[in-house]
Amino acid sequence: MAIIAQDIVNQVATRLGVDQPTAETTVGTILSVIDHEAEGTKVDALFDKVPGSRDLAQRHDVMAADPNGGGGGLMNMLGSALGEKAGALLKGVSRLKEAGLTVEQIEQAGEQFFQQAKAAAGPDLVKEITDAVPGMASHLGA
Fold first, then answer.
1. Fold of 5-136
2. CB 66: neighbour CB atoms within 10 A?
3. Full-prediction pTM beyond 0.70?
């Protein structure tokens, strides 16, 4: 059975004990970070293997203006100053904190996401993606 993006959202909600909108924001944010940071066919391959993931990443685009109209704080300003490559991960972590997640919950969400991604797309592809994004392992439990 194929794993779809909603399955990952459900797993994250269960593991973290958060509601569906928070879990969706979490998974969408992680997917958006991957989309911006790990360019190329690896990302396309992951999105192709997890139906609904591209749409979720686009709805929670970390490089778009803050949907809540908030300033985003120092992490967002730093991310903007560093440019897209370094900025997406910092903005993603900042957005997850603004959604009310603790650092521990962010790491747990990342671990759950990457576990599901490996099941859907294979461990080699996921390793290529996480290796391409400096800091992903330390910030998102990859």
1. Globin-like (1.10.490)
2. 15
3. yes
